[in-house]
Amino acid sequence: ALISEAVMTTDTGLPGEAAEPIDPAELAEAQAAEPAATAPAAPSQADGDPAAIAPAATDTAVGDTVATDPAPTDPADGDPAGTAPAATAAAPDPADGIIPASVADPTGTVAATTAPISADSTAAAALASTVTVAAAPDPAGGIIPAAAVTVAPDPALIEAESARLAEAAARRSRRRRNALRWIGAVAVTLAVGGGTAFALTIPQRTDMPGLGTPSDGRYAFPQLSLPALPAGQPAPASSAGAESGQHLADIRKLLLPKPVGATTQPVKNAVNGWLADASPLFIDQDGKQILAEYGLRHTAAASWTAADNATTTIYLLQFADNKAASGAQSALADGNLTALDEPALSTAITGVPNNTTAKDLVVLSSGVNGEYSTVKGSGKIAEYGSFVSGDTVAVVTQSGPTSLQFAPFQQVMILQAELLQ
């Protein structure tokens, strides 16, 4: 080991570098101190190995440098041509951890051995790397130290790895863009949907294009309200006459008010909303007697003319109870029945021709059914309707030009039934 260290410090084994002179006395002393660590001597012919090749002699004179080129071989040693090199590569010593050396060429150039680089390595492995190479042995037994050689990067590996990294970055970028697109689409959909829904709640339905319906002539009425009961009068549901259907408030206050824009019309023979004799409303000559028989208490009446030139008149005939009101209705109808076998009082109203067929108006209000008759003539149309609600018989008439629609008459019938109910 000391010899190897001494040789290494004196001769780098690299071309172009000058070797330092070695003192023979120091070399002999080192050999005596470490006889086991010296490099193995080449066998001679005297040892009985005629085939062994003797290493080339070196000049050990003081001031000379150690030669790194192999010495010429004597033709007498078995090489007739005399041109074969005498130096051979030294065997590796496992104990010394020496990397096997490759044979040096005659010019002194070191033959480098490099570790293989895998094609699957990453870009970092493909960059410049330092590998260890072994130098040729010194003929005198010394070993040229290993040299660091820089290996150039493989352009193909760098290009492949760069392409792979670029593709991975492109994939990540595409995923981010797709996520942002979906988030944006959802946000726009929610914003547009919410804005549209809010915008639809602001205007009236009939004011929106495509949603408005043609007018059917119905009236606009003021807010309807029930009248107050007399002082100390119990509510109808808790009174003794609840089952009899008695109306405890002033019946005039249960008349349907005129619609917005209508003009109040006087009712013939009515005073302060009361009609003294209601028998002229019916065709039956015995109408007055029938009304008295079933205990008519009083009759309230109201009339108006709306903007469509239709005149509407409402009569409320109040009896003692529901039984009396239903009996009077059947008697005044004089046997005329509707398709639902209800008394057709509308056919017995003054102004309705004989043999007029009555029609049903089902469910005007909860538990209330009505019927009506239509009369046309002299450029006019008239509707006559009737229904019973509790102790009251309601009679509604409406007349106007032939262009008058049926909806206003039906509207009046329904709202009046709701007030009485």
What is the strand and helix layout of this fold?
Blueprint: H1 2-10, H2 24-33, H3 123-126, E1 129-133, E2 147-151, H4 155-201, E3 263-265, E4 270-271, E5 274-275, H5 287-293, E6 298-305, E7 311-318, H6 322-333, E8 359-365, E9 368-377, E10 380-389, E11 392-401, H7 407-420
Antiparallel strand pairs: 1-2, 3-6, 4-5, 5-6, 6-7, 7-11, 8-9, 9-10, 10-11
> What is the multimeric organization of the chains shown?
single chain
Coarse shape? rod-shaped
How much of the sequence lies in strands comes to: 15-25%
pLDDT under 50 segments (min length 5)?
Answer: 1-19, 35-136
Helix/strand/pairing category:
alpha+beta
Q: Work out the radius of gyration.
A: 64 Å
Helix content: 10-25%
Instruction: Give the N-terminus to C-terminus distance in angstroms.
Output: 126 Å
Largest sheet properties: 9 strands, antiparallel
Mean pLDDT figure: 73
Which H/E pattern describes the elements? HHHEEHEEEHEEHEEEEH
Number of strands: 11
Our count of helices gives 7
Structural commentary:
The relative contact order is 0.08. Strands 3, 4, 5, 6, 7, 8, 9, 10 and 11 form a nine-stranded antiparallel β-sheet that branches. The chain is built from seven helices and eleven strands. The protein has 421 residues and is of the alpha+beta class. The N terminus is likely disordered. It is rod-shaped, with a radius of gyration of 64 Å.
